[in-house]
Amino acid sequence: MNRKEAEKRILSLRNQLQEHNHNYYVLNKPSISDFEYDMLMNDLSVLEKMFPEFSDISSPSQRVGSDISNEFKQVEHKYPMLSLGNTYSKEELVDFDTRIRKLLPESDIEYVCELKYDGTSISLTYVNGKLDYAVTRGDGVKGDDVTANVRTIKSIPLSLIGDFPPEFEIRGEIFIARNDFKKMNADREKKSEQTFANPRNAASGTLKLQNSSEVAKRPLDCFLYYVLGAELNYENHYENLSKAKDWGFKIPPHIMICKNIDQVYNFIQHWDKERKNLPYDTDGVVIKVNSLKQQKILGFTAKSPRWAIAYKFKAEQALTKLLSIDFQVGRTGAITPVANLEAVFLAGTTVKRASLHNADQIELHDIRLNDFVYIEKGGEIIPKIVGVDKSKRQENNEIFRYITHCPECNTELIRSEEEAKHFCPNEFGCPPQIKGKIEHFVSRKAMNIAGAEATIDLLYNNHLIQDIGDLYFLQKEDLIKLERFGEKSADNLFESLEKSKIVPFERVLYGLGIRYVGETVAKKIAAGVGTIENLMTASYETLIEIEEIGDIIAKSIIEHFRLEKNIKIIEKLKKAGLQMQIDEKENENLSNKLAGLSFVVSGVFSNHSRDEIKKLIELHGGKNAGSISAKTNYVLAGEKMGPEKLKKAEKLNIAIISESDFLRLIQ
Ligand code: IVH
Predict the structure, then answer these.
(1) How far, CA to CA in Å, does 473 sit from each of 82, 478, 494?
(2) Angle at which helices 551-562 and 564-576 pack, to 10 degrees?
């Protein structure tokens, strides 16, 4: 086959596969067998390998992702991704309708009702019919660029068909259907991997995976429900969605135009009953004013559009028997009561355990063993008990007495006035606290010691580690004596430990597990004190001077270093050669070339992340400002800079420079 023929064949295969994809994943109507599909795909892959000059990231063969680690760049949304106001009753719905009618007097109003899909929201931008980039909601103003992962989702078209506008954005919800979720979790369980709590967590967790070839293996799906852009000439939301459907998108299948709020309410009641028969989770109905002209008049509040609202379904409940209560001890010593229940089916899964939060909750609901309790699935990892059916109570169900001693080490529990939870104070002698602290230390966001988490139990049970410092003084001959611990595992562990010695100070600090010192606080502290010695000797007054450090955190730090055992741990870590101070070089002033200049950085850059650029500005003596004003000297504009900013910069006659202009400035 010559080049010309190959190109023709490649294009034809791509078109055919795209159509079959659409039939299968969007329309649910496959038109060829899986085998035939695989054969076509195989042909395409072979040809693309033989003729790499025709490669195209929008090719259907590119859905497999790659195992290059994704770094999620932050991207500013062109239009902020707002949330919706919530309503829970017919009255609140009527209020919404009244508000709208007041703002649009004497107009006919149509509402579009759609289901509210319980997944994770996504914004897709298409340029000239090709998926250009995909961004998560983030904080609503900027989100993570997850394009590589989204490209693997089969129901999201990489290329569009028909008369699509040259550039537009479309938003929707990425989700995992209930059956796929069950299969996926069963599979994970088999491989001893941690299972996901619910389809929503599984979807959002998957979307943030760093390896897109792993994402490609997960059953993500997507409904698209909101089209935006300057070049859309349709009259209403319904038409927007119908067009989106023609271009190849999977739009919400259950959608209804309503003339009044009673019709809206009928839709809600119908789906409140029926939703359990849908293959995916929904948590309400979204009601949108159909006319785009009317939407424009109604506009937005700071948080949400005035032209749309969500009606939230009441969470499904189930009634079941409370068999016993376990008490779990966390790494900080906090005690969490967990109920063991008679297995019951609730919203797609079988539930056997539920959270009881703390002693107050048990007392408040007067929950007793053998009671019949109502459980509900909230956003939390496990369902919670929300009440008791007292009519079913047996006379001999005794009032539940909360434990007074730690179930793991038998130390008497304490409960301070500010805390809802009981605590086990035996910080250095209570096994789950000791192991929990080590698990935290080796976790990805702290020291990232690969493979260590799985062996902590083994090492601890064999008295090889008592605290995080011991990890660095393990001896190979002790390790290989352990059951199922070969030479290779030992070498791997040592290699990971060695690698962790260059982890920056701020992450070591986070890994220490000082109460209330999370990732962000650790960064602020590291920048504020510079070295571990300074932190250990810092006074309360010095600590609260640091940005974001208040009374509680300062006291917690002082308390931590008052304990001799914690000082010993620091000594071990120092001896092991961990980073116990900030890397001065990283923050050393590089030049004063930008002294006195104020910059506003906006958009996405090709060689640096936005934060890196900002850091460079500071390292060269310049200043970063959040918004453009007359005092701004330069606007450093990347790709996809917000149009409002651009307008403002032009209006104030401020120099707009590119990334390469900037790099020249500091060279
Ligand atoms: S419309 C400006 N439609 O609900 C309005 N949202 O709290 C844009 N959601 O963040 C949203 N199903 O993630 C819309 N059919 C639907 C939806 C929906 C689920 C989510 C979405 C949004 C949240 C609102």
Answers:
(1) 51, 11, 10
(2) 80
Question: 560: how many CB neighbours lie within 10 A of its CB?
Answer: 19
Instruction: Please give the sequence-ordered ranges of beta strands (E in DSSP) within 383-470, or none if there are none.
Output: 384-388
The structure's pTM equals: 0.59
For residue 543, the tally of other CB atoms under 10 A from its CB is 21
**The pLDDT value given to residue 379:** 54
Calculate how far, in angstroms, residue 286's C-alpha sits from the geometric centre of ligand 1: 7
Q: 286, 288, 309: which to mutate for ligand 1, most atoms within 8 A of CB?
A: 286
Residue 223 Cα, ligand 1 centroid: separation in angstroms? 11
Cβ < 6 A, ligand 1 pocket? 82-84, 114, 116-117, 121, 173, 225-226, 252, 286, 305, 308, 310
The strand pairing partners of 32, in sequence order, are none
Of ligand 1's atoms, which has the minimum distance to the CA of residue 114? 15
pLDDT in tens, 124-175: 999 999 999 999 998 888 899 999 999 999 999 999 999 999 999 999 999 9
What is the position in ligand 1's atom list of the atom closest to the CA of 300?
A: 2
Which backbone phi and psi does 274 adopt, to 5 degrees? -80, -20
Of the CATH numbers 3.40.50.300, 1.10.287.610, 3.30.559.30, 3.30.70.20, which one belongs to the domain with range 3-64? 1.10.287.610
C-alpha 288 to ligand 1 mean position (Å): 10
Terminal Cα distance for the chain, rounded: 51
How far from 278 is each of 35, 275, 338, CA to CA, in Å? 29, 5, 30
| CATH classification number, 505-576, choose in 1.10.150.20, 1.10.3720.10, 2.60.40.10, 3.40.50.2300 | 1.10.150.20
CATH class held by domain 317-391: mainly beta
C-alpha 107: how far from its chain's center? 41
**49 belongs to the catalytic site:** no
Residue-level pLDDT at 589? 77
Q: Which residue in 116, 142, 377, 640 is the catalytic one?
A: 116
